[in-house]
Amino acid sequence: MTEDTTTAEKSADTKVTEAQSAALALANLSESARNEALHAIADGIEARSEEILEANAKDVEAGEEMLEAGEYTQAFVDRLKLSESKLESIAAMVRSVAGQEDPLGRTLEARRLDEDLELYKVAVPIGVLGTVFESRPDALVQIAALSLKSGNAVVLKGGSEAAHSNRILYEVIREATADVPDGWAQLIEAREDVATLLERDDAVDLLMPRGSSEFVSYVEDNTKIPVLGHTEGICHVYADEDADLSMAADVAFDAKVQYPAVCNAVETLLVHESVAADLLPDLAARYREADVELRGDERARDIVEMNAASEADWSTEYGDLILAVKIVDSLEDAIDHVNTYGSKHTESIVTETADHAERFMRQIDAASVFHNASTRFADGYRFGLGAEVGISTGKTHARGPVGLEGLTTYKYHLEGDGQLVATYAGEGAKPFLHEDFAGEWSPGRLSTE
Amino acid sequence: MTEDTTTAEKSADTKVTEAQSAALALANLSESARNEALHAIADGIEARSEEILEANAKDVEAGEEMLEAGEYTQAFVDRLKLSESKLESIAAMVRSVAGQEDPLGRTLEARRLDEDLELYKVAVPIGVLGTVFESRPDALVQIAALSLKSGNAVVLKGGSEAAHSNRILYEVIREATADVPDGWAQLIEAREDVATLLERDDAVDLLMPRGSSEFVSYVEDNTKIPVLGHTEGICHVYADEDADLSMAADVAFDAKVQYPAVCNAVETLLVHESVAADLLPDLAARYREADVELRGDERARDIVEMNAASEADWSTEYGDLILAVKIVDSLEDAIDHVNTYGSKHTESIVTETADHAERFMRQIDAASVFHNASTRFADGYRFGLGAEVGISTGKTHARGPVGLEGLTTYKYHLEGDGQLVATYAGEGAKPFLHEDFAGEWSPGRLSTE
């Protein structure tokens, strides 16, 4: 049908090298060309929905056999399964990525170093992204769309359980983006290919692993390439002595129950000892009604009957309807607990006292620190970052929820008219102006043409 | 004298852990406290100059023995040597770091997610920096000053040839910063301690190795910690067919001769074939006068007598008065050559044609791309970034010359009045506002206090 049918025969090394070659040309593709290509992907998904659903049916069939064998959960098979309406929403997602503001080409800073010597810091793509993601066919399309929008070439590795779906979706994307520099998106399938990908620090500029914390840690342990990902989400809500207790109960409930499987859900509730007796009984009843298992320290268990928390509970990401509860003597104890056991993801204090909020937010080392709001707000969409690329628990490059900007870097453009450093050095050196100004880079604006 | 005398007995592991403990408190030290501590360091260096010079004399003496034995160069020993005036300029450098704008606490973005739900992105320190640097006693003071200004704890490892100087300078810094959270700066000395440092990804957030490209590569190969450094500086000047030839000659001369030992000096001159015969003879004569050895491809040697360049020359960072010269047939050939052999550091085109400049600057993948200016401008000071922390050839976090901003990350602060995600999800979800506004985070500004 197309050259994509040879995909399986090319080595992962070759594919990474092809992505690297495509990246330079892709970096300069106009915004309109990138957006047109994204619309073509969306159209292609709709036009070829029958084929896609047929391929997906093979994955789902295999998944259901594994479900019967007790290997997979129903939720896993549900995530694997595509439908006409799901394909429509995937196409809509791609069109919405096309509609996002262009992350490329913006002049981030402009500075006049001297008369007719102008420095511009311009947003550009990072280059080649290496991605490994879970067995959801929509993940492949989403990651390809975000990469294309941000002008990055991408190597895609999906879960093997979605192999048939991934192959047809990749083919649709390749066909729809025939005008994009050839090789910009590459599909790898074998587990060994991931090892190859991790070794190619000469060609891959950023890795984006998704999936379990263990997998992200494995990636970090086995590559020199920078990794954008989050390893754990051990988030806390702290009900301060000066909390509005009804607000504290609502925030703590929302943070656990609204969607317990995600990384920004709360895992440990910290309660100041002076309000514990007022807060806990009603809140525990609400949790019980929502099937939340509570595991408390001794003082919490003195107030409400619940299971006993062990030391391991303070550093466990349940990702489930389980909540650890601890009574603390002071704001300082709460801060210490979070800095000791937290994963630097998202931490929330409920208090009416501004000074307490300030100390909590300043003294805790986490990507997101909240005052009187649910930890579940830590999310690219809710933060208004547009499409979410991922969440990072790293402290360099990008931190917390990451939008398309996280897939960009910058280049310094200097426009001169023949300036030499010798003029600005040594005895009688000419001083620099170093004046920031509002301006966009326009190539050769100082040249004589 | 102080507890510093026990420094040598503590293990590197303990020191890294102490830095980690100090980092949290240091992150919240006020700007005035950080600046006062910097001034105290400068004062301490001046007040204890005799002791410092005595200690330095031991290093210099040992260095001179090695010089006589032919192990060290005179330049190496010169860099090792301190003097009253050099100490004064080191103290002045520390005061100038104190005078820089505070890189911390700035609100980088403010966005209203909804009424009374405000998100602030605030600049904060990265945490713990691990630094390994060359045998220049001034390097220790500079790195400690930059770390303190940016609120980061730091582990310092200097060259063993400067051990006596480093010890006394470290002691002066420790004494002068008694009001800074204890343990914020740590000195490690043994080569094995570097291995320990590289393993502590649990505690160290960013590594800044300085020295040879080989050493930086070694660090990258042996750690999971993000690395800020540059491995090579293979920079080009391209004299286009539409170049002002007198400008091209001046830029190419400055880029090589003004300071050949540094990473932003040019290593290969590319010349369009149509101007080579006009440009090269005079320029070669100027280079010869400045003792520059030229190594040309065949066509360059047809025009001017020079040594022959081998394939290896195109990818060699000379750091010396040697320049490779290549004739190219087109702008595209020049771009291809740079993308093949360059190190993504700094590239310059000399041309009067804006479109040629644009293509060169857009299609070359490098941190800095210049039009009609010497590559030697690629430098934090000249770029107006204030104190230069380093130059990065990486593409994530920071790229090109890096100022104090490169030692910061950010935290998201969310101020609410009890908002729940359940309100904004599912059927009848409340829409977000997502309005950017100009505002600084002020803790608890929405709280009822």
TrEMBL record, chains A, B:
One annotated Gene Ontology cellular component of this protein: cytoplasm
Alphabetical list of Pfam families matching this protein: Aldedh (PF00171)
GO biological process: L-proline biosynthetic process
Location within or outside the cell: Cytoplasm
UniProt GO MF annotations: glutamate-5-semialdehyde dehydrogenase activity
Keyword Ribonucleoprotein: no
UniProt keywords, alphabetically: Amino-acid biosynthesis, Cytoplasm, NADP, Oxidoreductase, Proline biosynthesis
Keyword Oxidoreductase: yes
Domain Aldehyde dehydrogenase: start-end pairs: 8-294
Coiled coil: none
Protein's pathway: Amino-acid biosynthesis; L-proline biosynthesis; L-glutamate 5-semialdehyde from L-glutamate: step 2/2
Reactions performed catalytically: L-glutamate 5-semialdehyde + phosphate + NADP(+) = L-glutamyl 5-phosphate + NADPH + H(+)
Origin: domain of life: Archaea
EC number from the UniProt entry: 1.2.1.41
Role: Catalyzes the NADPH-dependent reduction of L-glutamate 5-phosphate into L-glutamate 5-semialdehyde and phosphate. The product spontaneously undergoes cyclization to form 1-pyrroline-5-carboxylate.
Family of this protein: Belongs to the gamma-glutamyl phosphate reductase family.
Xref: HAMAP family: ProA
Protein name, entry field: Gamma-glutamyl phosphate reductase
Gene that produces this protein: proA
